[in-house]
Amino acid sequence: MGIKEKCTICNSKISLRFNPMEEWGIKGPICGDCYSKKIDKHYPGDHIRVNKEKD
C-alpha cells in the first residue's frame, strides 16, 4: 500500500489530491473538501459547490 498524504489545511487523509492555487498562499496538497471551500471563498460566482452540507 502507498503512503496516504494528509491535507495541508484539515489534516485528513487525501483520497483525491488537489493542488492549491498560487494566490491562496498554501504550500502542499489539499483534499477535495478544502479545495471546494477555497474555490467558493476566492472565486464567488455561479460555480456549483459539491458537498457544501459538510461545512
Model description:
The structure is a single chain. With 55 residues, the protein is mostly helical. It has 1 helix and no strands. The chain has one helix at residues 32-42.
Amino-to-carboxy terminus distance: 30 Å
**Gross geometry:** globular
Task: Summarize model confidence as the mean pLDDT.
Answer: 83
List the helices and strands in order.
Answer: H
Secondary-structure-based class equals: mainly alpha
Low-confidence stretches: none
Largest sheet: none
Q: How much helix, percentage-wise, in residues? A: 10-25%
Radius of gyration (CA) equals: 12 Å
Number of strands: 0
Give the amount of beta strand, in percent: under 5%
Count of DSSP-assigned helices: 1
